[in-house]
C-alpha cells in the first residue's frame, strides 16, 4: 500500500508541476471531465460509473482515440456533497478546461454544477435521474438515465395493467426519493391511480416497520411502491416480507442491481421494478437492438473489474459513448458544434435505451425504454 | 389498534437498545476521561464489517464474532493510546475534533479494506418472524434485546464486583486520588476505551442482520448514541439505557403516528425540552459548582 | 500605550489586506479565484463563530443551521418573490438574530457537552425543515440562487466590469468583494474583542464565576455573542448562496457545522487570523487530496487527528509560539 | 450605625447535609469582620451564599436593608458587593491588566453600537478604565506585572491581582476568602497593610482566614463557625477568651 501511496504522491507532484508549468502538451488529448460520488452515501452510483469511464477511456485510447486524439479523463470525487461537486465542476471548466463533462452521479450534485457549467458553455452529460435536470431544457445540459417521471409512469402503467388503482407510497427523504415521490404524486392522477398512503423514511433509518405498518393499516391499499435508492429500499423490502404484507410490491430503478438481490435475499421474491435490460441481457429477444450492446458492456465490465455490473455504470457508458459520438459528428471539440451534435443524435443504441435527442429533449429516452423485471427464485426475470 | 401500538413499541425498543449500547460506550469513556468520543459509532461499524468479512473467509459465526469484537477492542485501546493520551492537555473541543478525525480515519481505512458496498449478515437464528399480540417481529430483535440486557448486567457486575471495575469508578470520581491509592490511571483509561469498543462492536454485530452493514454506518448510529447519552445524562449508566430506549421509542412512535418526515426533528425537540428543564439530562448527577 | 495597541490591531488588518491584494499574482485561472472567494466568505463565517467558541468558550455544533437560514432566506425570497438581494440579506440576518436570541436564552444556560448537544439539536431541526419543505426550498436536491445585485448593479462571476478604466472579470470582482467582506468581518470582530464587551466575553471563558461577581451578566453576554455569531453566519450564508448560485440543504447540515467548528479549532481558537488560516486549509485540503482518490478520506482523517494532537492550540498560535521561541533564542545568541 | 450585611436564620443543605445551619449575624459598615473556624465549618459556603453563587435553603440576607436572597451575583455586584476566592478565579486567557479592567465592568458605559464601530467615546472610556486599573495594580503591589499575561504571574501576585480586580468595581463591601493562604511571612505582612489601607478608604471588609495572628490583629469583630453553626461572635478579645472557641480549637 505504501508503494501505491508513493506512486500517488509522485503523480500528485507531477500534476501540480504540470499545472504550474502549463503548456507542454504534446498530443493534444481530448479532455473528458468528470465529477462523481465515488465515495459517500451515493458511492453505489459513482463507483461503477467511474469504473466504466476509466475502462472505456482506456479501450478507446487503445483503439486509436477519437478524431486521432487520445482521450484524457480528469476525474474528481465529490463524495455526494453538492458544494464539493460545484467546486470540482468549477475546477474542471476553469482550471482543467475540459472539452466535455460526463458526470454528476446524483441530482443534487448535478444541479449544483449546472449554473456554472451553463455559464462556462461546456457540454455536460449528467448521470442523474431527476426530471428537473433536462426539464426545462438547458442548452448545455444532457442526461442519460431515464427520468424519475418516466420510472413512475412505467411502474404505474404496470400496476394499471394488473388492475391496481389504489396504492401506498413509501419514499426516502434524500434527493432521489423526494423527487421520485413528487413525480409519482404528479403522474398518478393522470394515470387514474390514487395514492392513499404516503410515508417517508430518512436514508439513515435502520427500520421501516413503523412506516410500513401505517401503509398496511390504510384501508384500500392494493399495492405498495417504494421510491428510493441505497440500502434503505433493501431494509424496506425485508421489513415488508417480515410484516407478511402480501400486496404486490414495486421498487424503483434506483435499486436495479444484482447487489440489491443479495441484500434482500428471499424477502425480494415477487417484487417488480423498472430497469434497463442490463440486468437480463440474455432474456432479451434477438430482435432487440440493445441486446448486443448490453451483452458486450456487461461481459467487458465483469471481466475487467471482477464484480457484477450495475445499471448505474450503464449510464456512464451511455454518457461517454454519446460524448464520443457527438465529438466525432462535430469533427472537433468545438463546444457549440459538440452541443449541436449531441442534440442531433437519433437512434443511438445504448445500454440504457435507444436515445433520440432533440433541441427540446436532452434526455432522449422515455418510459418505454424501461423493462419491468420481477424477482423469481432470487433472479431477475423479464416481464414481457 | 393495539397490534399497531405493539408493533411501533417493539420497533422502537429494538433500535433503542442499539442506541443504548452506543450510549453506554459514550458513558464509559466519559466517566473515565470526560472525553466525548465521536468515534464511538466506528466501533459498531468495525463489529459488523469484520464479522461479515470473517464469515466470508469461512469462519463459523461465533468465532467470527469473537474475533471481530476483539479487533474492535484493540482499535479502542489504540485510539486511547495514540490519539487521546498524547493530547491530554488539550481543550474539550480539541479532543472532540481529535475523535472526529479518528473516526474519519477509521472509516477511510475500512473503506479501503472492506469496500463501499453494503453487506448482509445472516440472522443469528431463524429468519422466521415471530408474532406477538398481532405484531410481527424479527427474531433478531430478541437477540438485540437479549444481548443488550446481558451486556448491561455484565457491566453492572463488572463495576460492582471486580477490582478493575471499582478502579474505573474511582478514577472517574477523582483522578488524583485514584492515582494516590495506586491505581494506574492510564491503564484504567485504556480499559475504559476497550470496554466501550467491545460494547459498541457487540451492538454493531447484533444489529447488522437487521440494518445491513457498511463502512459508513457508524456515523448516524454514533450520533444517535451521543444524543441518547446526553438525554439520559452524561456519565449515568441508567441514563444511557433509558435515554437510548426512549429515543428509539419516540422515533418509532412519531414515524408511526405523526409524520415520518419529522421523526428526527421530534426526537431532537424532545431533547431540547428535556434539557430546558433538566440541564443535566434525565439521570445526570446534580453537581454543585465548587469555588 | 493605547496607541501602540491600536497599531497592533491595525497591523493584522493591514497584513490581511495586503495578502488579499497580492494573492491574485499567484492565481492563474478563474477556478483559483473561485476557491479564494469561497474561502474568504467561509473565513468570515468562522471569524464570527470564533467569537462564540474561541473567546466566550461556548461550543456550538449547530452553526451551519444559521448559515443555512441566511442562504435559504436569500435564495427563496430573491428567486421566488423577486426581493432585492441586499435588503433580503439584511432581513435574513435580523431574522436569524431573533431566532438565535430566542433559542439562545434557554440553551446557553447549559454547560459543556450539554450545550453542544442542544446546539446540535437546533442545527439538526433547521436542516430537517429545509430538507423537508421542498415546495419552497427545493428539498434535498437544492435550489438555484440569483446573482447578488445592489441598485440594479449585478455582481456575477461571469460578467465583465470596467472599473477606473480597467476591465475586470466578474470572478475577480467577486474575489475583491469577498475580500472586503472578510476585512470588514475581521474589523468588527476585533472591535468586539478589544472592548469591555469582549473582555466580558473572554471572562466567561476564563472564569465564569469571576465574571459574575464583578457584575457581568453572563447569561446576557452569552446570548449576545451567540446572536452576533449567528448573524455573521447568516450574512455569509446569504453571500455564499449568491456567489455559488446553487445551494443544497447540505450547507445547513450537521457535517457542515462540524466543518465550521473544525476550522476554528484547527486554525487556533481565540485567534482571529488563525481561524482564517483554518478555513483556508480545510477548504483547500479536499482539492489537494483529490488526486489520492480512495485514500482521500483516510488521509484527511489522519491529517486532522495529527494536527490536533501535536498542535492542540491550533496552527497559527503554535506557529507564533515557535517563531517567538526562535526569535528570543536569536536575541540571546546575539547578546552572548 | 445600621448593618450593611444582615443575615438571619440562614440554612444551606447539600443532599440532606447541612453545610450552614440557623446562622444569624450582621456586619456594620466600615468594619473589618472576620469569619473563622476549622476546615469544613462552612465558611466558604457562607461566602457563596452571601454573594449569590448559592441560593440558601432557608433564611434571609439583607444588603443595605434590601433583601438579596436568590439574587444573581452580578446583581449583587451592582449593589456594591465584591469578593475574591479561596481557589483563585483569574481569567488566565487575559492579561493581568485586563483582569483588573474586567473588575470595572459595571463602571463602563459602552453599548453594542459604540463597540462595533469603535467610536471615540468608547476609546476615551477605555483609556480611563486602563489608567484606573494601572493605579489599582500599583496600589495592591502588582506594579511590575502591568504588561504581563495573568498566566505568567506568581501565586502571591495573583492573590493581590484578584484583590485589585475586586476593588476595581468601587465596592461598598469586599469579601476576601483566605487571602493569606499560601503566602509567606513578608507577603502576609504586606497583605495586612493592604487590608488596612482598603478599610481606611471606607470599604467594609469581610474576611475568611486561618492565620490567627492576622485575623486577631486587624479585625473589629469575629464570627466563629463550627459545623455550619455559630459558635461565637464578638471582638477579638471576647473570642480569645471564649471557652467554647478554646475547646473547639484545642480539640476539646
TrEMBL record, chain A:
Belongs to the leucine-binding protein family. This is Amino acid/amide ABC transporter substrate-binding protein, HAAT family (TC 3.A.1.4.-). Keywords: Amino-acid transport, Signal, Transport. Residues 29-378 form the Leucine-binding protein domain. Pfam families: Peripla_BP_6. Residues 1-26 form the signal peptide. It comes from Marinospirillum alkaliphilum DSM 21637. One of its GO terms (biological process) is amino acid transport. PANTHER family: BLR7848 PROTEIN (PTHR30483:SF38), LEUCINE-SPECIFIC-BINDING PROTEIN (PTHR30483). Transmembrane segments: none annotated. The keyword Glycoprotein does not apply.
TrEMBL record, chain B:
One of its GO terms (molecular function) is transmembrane transporter activity. It is found in: Cell inner membrane. GO terms for biological process: amino acid transport. Pfam families: BPD_transp_2 (PF02653). InterPro entries: ABC_transp_permease, BCAA_transport_permease. The chain crosses the membrane at residues 6-30, 65-85, 92-114, 142-160, 181-200, 265-283. It comes from the Bacteria. It is a multi-pass membrane protein. CDD domains: TM_PBP1_LivH_like. One of its GO terms (cellular component) is plasma membrane. Its main location: membrane. Belongs to the binding-protein-dependent transport system permease family. LivHM subfamily. PANTHER family: ABC TRANSPORTER PERMEASE PROTEIN, BRANCHED-CHAIN AMINO ACID TRANSPORT SYSTEM PERMEASE PROTEIN LIVH. This is Amino acid/amide ABC transporter membrane protein 1, HAAT family. It comes from Marinospirillum alkaliphilum DSM 21637.
From TrEMBL, chain C:
Keywords: Cell membrane, Membrane, Transmembrane, Transmembrane helix. InterPro entries: ABC_transp_permease, LivM-like. It is found in: Cell inner membrane. One of its GO terms (cellular component) is plasma membrane. It is a multi-pass membrane protein. GO terms for molecular function: branched-chain amino acid transmembrane transporter activity. The keyword Nucleotide-binding does not apply. It comes from the Bacteria. The chain crosses the membrane at residues 38-57, 64-83, 89-107, 114-131, 143-161, 173-193, 224-246, 258-285, 297-316. This is Amino acid/amide ABC transporter membrane protein 2, HAAT family (TC 3.A.1.4.-). It comes from Marinospirillum alkaliphilum DSM 21637.
Automatic annotation (TrEMBL), chain D:
Keywords: ATP-binding, Nucleotide-binding, Transport. CDD domains: ABC_Mj1267_LivG_branched. Pfam families: ABC_tran, BCA_ABC_TP_C. GO terms for molecular function: ATP binding; ATP hydrolysis activity; L-isoleucine transmembrane transporter activity; L-phenylalanine transmembrane transporter activity; L-valine transmembrane transporter activity. PROSITE patterns: ABC_TRANSPORTER_2. GO terms for cellular component: plasma membrane. SMART domains: AAA (SM00382). InterPro entries: AAA+_ATPase, ABC_AA/LPS_Transport, ABC_transporter-like_ATP-bd, BCA_ABC_TP_C, P-loop_NTPase. Residues 5-252 form the ABC transporter domain. One of its GO terms (biological process) is D-alanine transmembrane transport. PANTHER family: AMINO ACID ABC TRANSPORTER ATP-BINDING PROTEIN, CONSERVED COMPONENT OF ABC TRANSPORTER FOR NATURAL AMINO ACIDS-RELATED. This is Amino acid/amide ABC transporter ATP-binding protein 1, HAAT family. It comes from Marinospirillum alkaliphilum DSM 21637.
